[in-house]
Design goal:
Residues 709-743 form a coiled coil. GO terms for molecular function: phosphorelay sensor kinase activity; protein dimerization activity. This protein is of the alpha+beta class. The protein folds into 7 domains: 26-135, Beta-Lactamase (2-Layer Sandwich), CATH 3.30.450; 143-272, Beta-Lactamase (2-Layer Sandwich), CATH 3.30.450.20; 319-396, 2-Layer Sandwich (Beta-Lactamase); 404-556, Beta-Lactamase (2-Layer Sandwich), CATH 3.30.450; 559-687, 2-Layer Sandwich (Beta-Lactamase); 718-807; 810-948, 2-Layer Sandwich (Heat Shock Protein 90). It is built from 35 helices and 30 strands. Helix 32 (849-870) packs antiparallel against helix 34. The chain is extended, with a radius of gyration of 52 Å.
Length: 952
């Protein structure tokens, strides 16, 4: 039915009033339908009535909640708020609103917003209060979530180097800029707000036009997702920025603002520029290097090669493209290439494509000849990791191979001269000696003669620092050796006590920068026989700074020396020996030649009369006179009684000979005289010169070869040094950890011994005397007391045993030897096997504390392994000083174990062995284990005395 609005009469004011007053239920329905918690209270805020929403808020039925006290439905803070704020305002007729907390029936707390309006009667006195409450729990959760989101956004904005912004397109100003803009551009947010044109000011002038176009596009309603431009930082540096943005529109679709993120991409741009420059550089290198860089397909057909391929093969890239690599090499090289392919296929069959082949192959040149190339081949993979060909580098090594063959030929010639020389020849390395001399200079030593005579131990150290690299066959014959290995090492095997004075002169000469020495010393053969030799050493020019190679020759002059000794006893014997000696002999008395043998006449070419009338210095070559002038002056004065060394003389025919002269005091005719002995060493000098020339030629060729490897050596050395440093740091940390562990063991041992053991002893004493003076005590109680005392005795013994195991007091009080004696005795007694311990030579060595405790722990671990695992009936332990080391040998007759046995059968035993190895390494020593299943075990510790000795 359609109702006409105009036919419905609107009620007048009186009708409205009557309708409202006539039906109170109407207001109740209105309050219920509002959904708000509405209640009526008396003037003291006690509830009189509430709607259903009010009951739902509290969780109680309406009838029940009207009788509940405030303290039950509100926490103390809200009750206090009622009394101190809400109630006073109501009594004054003022409304109150605010937030407070209520307690629901289930005990949960809810934050509500309350409005309290007082209702007064005709006299103005408050009679009722109407209250409305709104549950704010959801609002608070949203508020907290928004706060957390705001904090998170602020944190991101403050911490990131990117900036967040909102640009108002109508004003051209930023509605928002994150604080990180200061890190981004150097300018603060306040500076941007104070200067609206600052953005355009910092944009690089070259980009103004570009950004104008961007702004016009945004005003027209289009925006680019990302753009890049340059800007000028406050510091004056030019930076790159990347800006990602979105366009915001109003309800009419008109653009109003742009929101976005700007990122500083300067580092990326610089990296891209460096990459571009690097690519250009490497492209230039690839196109212009003498090496050939190439790629091949999976069938080894050439796909690409750099232009340098023409220089080494004669073919252009176009001529070789698509040609099989197998057709480019000779048949012998093809076999080597096929062998490399087999290894590659085996590796790639398991999915390993990392193999790199390095081959030297003989290639076929376009002109029909051949050339040698060193080729490195690696596998190429596509984006999915699948093999798609090969890449490599080839280098022409034809000249290097020819040089290598020449070096081998030269070396063979040099080796033949060296090995077959009739003179004893030595090749020695004095590098360690050079370091020692440099160390002495750093310590302020300038007078090496005084230093070596005041410090004979320094001279002994020099002998130990000489390394024998090689000797020839004549040396083996001279010293009675059967192999070269018997003479390798240092000179301790051949030097004698009487030769140390001459050795000192050699060291003084070397330390002072000298490069050549000649003199006579005694040597000891490996059979124990003492012989006299004339030693001559020479340092080649290329090794004068390092002393890494020194050539030494020895000439056996034992027959001559024995002749000289015989001449000292008898003048007649002198004459007989001199006549039969191969050396020239002149007896000088008061400046006159009293005797000249035939060998002297043969060497000089002068007659006896000519020699008697001739001044000896006139025979000396002019080039050597000045060098030996002081010695000849002492010869004339009769004070000369030593070797003059080697020099040249002029024979009567004008020839030149090399001689070595020594002077000995003798008695001739009952008066003092001097015997001059000349040895003709011209032949040996010629051989030595030829040897040095051959050696220099070989060294020159080796130097060229070494230059090719120097770059690789530098990289390897750097890596080795880095690994060495890392190993040193690891060793230092391990040593510190073990030291801390020992300190902690000592502290725990002391606490167990001084506190726990003492307290237990006191308890045991009290238990033993508990029934003293009580003869009538119950026997059962006395028996139990004795049982407790026995338990305490065993406990005290165990505590002391643990304390001694953690830190044996004998080590601090009696020293290492006695501590090990006690350890062996206790182990043998407890486990029922014979432990034979013996020590010698250690008592006079003041050992470092760390060395003592580590030696003790290593022996302790070895003994523990014997007790637990070996099943031995006897063990032998020896601690001896054997210069230059301290040796600890531990043997047992147990079951032994295979070399890989401990790791597989008993991890605990393997850990013990690792601990022993680590401790030996930390104190500069070594550990050697010899064992086999069923044959027992032998362990040898070796620690250098020098590193074990206590310093300071």
């Amino acid at each position: 039915m359609k109702i006409d609005r105009d036919t419905i009469a609107r009620p007048d004011a009186e009708t409205r009033k009557r309708l409202m007053e006539s039906d109170p239920a109407l207001f109740r329905s209105l309050i219920e339908a509002s959904g708000m918690a509405v209640s009526i209270h008396d003037k003291n805020l006690f509830p009189l009535w509430g709607n259903q929403a009010y009951a739902d808020l509290w969780g109680y039925p309406v009838d029940e909640i009207l009788d509940l006290p405030h303290e039950l439905v509100m926490p103390p803070e809200s009750v206090e708020l009622y009394r101190s704020s809400v109630l006073p305002n109501i009594r004054k007729g003022r409304p109150w609103e605010g937030e407070y907390v209520i307690r629901a029936r289930d005990g949960s707390l809810h934050t509500v917003k309350g409005w309290f309006d007082p209702i007064a009667d005709e006299t103005g006195e408050v009679t009722h209060v109407i209250a409305i409450k709104q549950d704010l729990s959801d609002v608070i959760r949203m508020r907290e979530a928004l706060g957390a989101a705001e904090k998170s956004l602020n944190f991101i904005s403050d911490c990131t180097s990117d900036i967040f912004f909102r640009l108002n397109l109508h004003t051209g100003l930023y509605d928002y800029l994150s604080p990180s803009v200061e890190r981004f551009s150097g300018y603060t947010v306040r500076e941007y707000q104070a200067c609206p044109m600052l953005v355009r000011k910092i944009v690089h002038p070259d980009w103004h036009g570009y950004l104008d176009v961007i702004m016009e596009e945004m005003l027209a309603g289009t925006v680019r997702d990302e753009l890049e431009f340059q800007f000028i930082h406050k510091s004056g540096k030019v930076h790159w920025a990347s800006q990602r943005q979105i366009l915001l529109r109003d309800k009419n679709g008109e653009p109003v603002a742009v929101e976005g993120i700007a990122t500083d991409i300067t580092a990326r741009k610089e990296a891209e520029e460096r990459l571009r420059a690097s690519e250009e550089k490497y492209r230039f290198l690839a196109e212009n290097t003498a090496d050939v860089i190439w790629t091949m397909d999976n069938d080894y057909r050439l796909a690409y090669a750099t232009p340098s391929i023409v220089d080494i093969s004669g073919y252009t890239m176009e001529e070789l493209q698509g040609r099989s690599f197998r057709r480019m090499i000779t048949r012998p090289s093809l076999r080597r290439f096929d062998q490399a392919l087999v290894r590659r296929r085996e590796s790639e069959r398991t999915g390993d494509y990392s193999l790199i082949n390095s081959l030297e192959l003989e290639h076929i040149h376009k002109d029909g000849g051949t050339f040698w190339a060193e080729t490195v081949i690696k596998r190429l993979l596509d984006d999915k990791g699948r093999p798609c060909g090969f890449q490599g580098v080839s280098r022409d090594v034809t000249i290097r191979r020819e040089a290598g063959e020449a070096i081998l030929a030269s070396e063979a010639r040099f080796r033949t001269l060296f090995e077959d020389s009739p003179i004893s020849l030595w090749e020695e390395d004095l590098t360690k000696l050079k370091f020692y001399f440099d160390e002495l200079r750093e310590r302020g030593v300038t007078d090496f003669r005084r230093f070596f005579y005041d410090n004979p131990e320094g001279l002994a150290r020099c002998a130990a620092l000489v390394t024998v690299v090689d000797v020839n066959k004549a040396t083996l014959s001279l010293l009675g050796a059967t192999s070269k290995e018997e003479l390798f090492g240092n000179l301790d095997k051949v030097l004698t006590e009487s030769s140390m004075a001459a050795f000192a002169e050699e060291m003084i000469l070397l330390a002072s920068g000298g490069r050549e020495y000649c003199g006579e010393i005694t040597n000891r053969t490996l059979d124990g026989e003492t012989i006299w030799v004339m030693v001559h050493f020479f340092v080649p020019d290329e090794y004068k700074d390092t002393l890494s190679r020194v050539i030494v020759s020895l000439l056996d002059v034992t027959p001559r020396r024995r002749a000289e000794e015989a001449l000292m006893d008898s003048e007649e014997r002198y004459r007989v020996l001199a006549e039969n000696s191969q050396e020239g002999v002149i007896v000088m008395q008061n400046g006159t030649a009293r005797y000249v043998n035939e060998s002297m006449l043969r060497i000089t070419g002068y007659s006896a009369r000519e020699l008697e009338e001739l001044d000896f210095t006139d025979m000396v070559h002019p080039g050597d006179r000045n060098e030996h002038a002081p010695q000849f002056a002492r010869l004339d004065s009769g004070e000369m009684n030593e070797s003059l060394g080697s020099f040249r003389i002029l024979t009567s025919s004008g020839g030149i000979k090399w001689v070595n002269m020594s002077v000995k005091p003798i008695m001739w005719g009952g008066r003092e005289a001097q015997m001059l002995i000349l040895t003709n060493i011209t032949r040996y000098k010629a051989l030595e010169s030829e040897l040095l020339i051959a050696h220099a030629q070989m060294e020159n060729r080796v130097r060229k070869r070494t230059a090719e490897l120097s770059k690789a050596n530098v990289r390897l050395k750097a890596e080795a040094e880095e690994r060495g440093k890392a190993q040193e740091r690891i060793q230092a940390l391990t040593q510190q950890l073990i030291r801390v562990q020992e300190d902690e063991r000592q502290r725990i041992s002391r606490d167990l011994h001084d506190n726990v053991a003492q307290d237990l002893s006191s308890i045991m004493l009290k238990m033993e005397t508990l029934f003293d003076g009580h003869p009538d005590a119950d026997p059962e109680l006395a028996r139990r007391g004795e049982a407790v005392a026995n338990v305490l005795r065993n406990t005290i013994a165990s505590v002391r045993e643990i304390a001694y195991g953690l830190r044996p007091p004998a080590l601090d009080q009696l020293g290492l030897v006695q501590a090990l004696t006690n350890l062996c005795h206790d182990a043998g007694s407890r486990y029922g096997f014979d432990v034979d311990f013996f020590s010698t030579g250690i008592e006079n060595i003041s050992l470092d504390f760390d060395v003592e405790i580590n030696l003790y722990r290593m022996v302790q671990e070895a003994v523990r392994n014997i007790c637990r695992h070996a099943g031995a009936t006897k063990a032998v332990i020896r601690l001896v000083k054997s210069h230059p080391d301290i040796l600890i040998r531990i043997e047992d007759n147990g079951r032994g174990f295979p070399e890989d046995g401990p790791a597989r059968t008993d991890p605990g035993k393997r850990m013990g062995l690792q601990s022993m190895e680590e401790r030996a390494r930390l104190i500069g020593g070594s550990l050697e284990i010899q064992t086999l299943t069923g044959t027992g075990t032998r362990i040898l510790f070796k620690v250098p005395i020098e590193s074990a000795r206590r310093h300071g």
